[in-house]
Design goal:
single chain, alpha+beta, two-stranded parallel ribbon, 4 strands
Length: about 80
């Protein structure tokens, strides 16, 4: 761990640590990082809300991408996500 100025902390991992983590990721594949933290809990995510009286713009696309990513993270954590 290295303090690199105000607000910055650098963490350095040894090559051995990287290889161990990468090996675990390769073994678990798409299941890596998943948990049952939210098992049994329902979550509803509403994330695309364009103003029907105004023009669409890039911000609406950003909201859709961020909302979809949040929903995917919650699903990986075991939540029953309704989009």
């Amino acid at each position: 761990v290295d303090i690199a100025g105000p607000g910055f902390i650098n963490f350095t991992l040894s090559p051995t640590c990287w290889y161990e983590v990468l090996d675990e990721i390769m073994q678990q594949g798409a299941e890596y990082g998943r948990s049952e933290f939210g098992k049994g809990q329902k979550v509803q995510i509403e994330f695309v809300s364009a103003n029907p009286t105004g023009p669409l713009h890039i911000g609406h696309g950003r909201g859709a991408a961020v909302g979809d990513a949040v929903a995917a993270i919650l699903q990986a954590a075991g939540f029953d996500v309704q989009r």
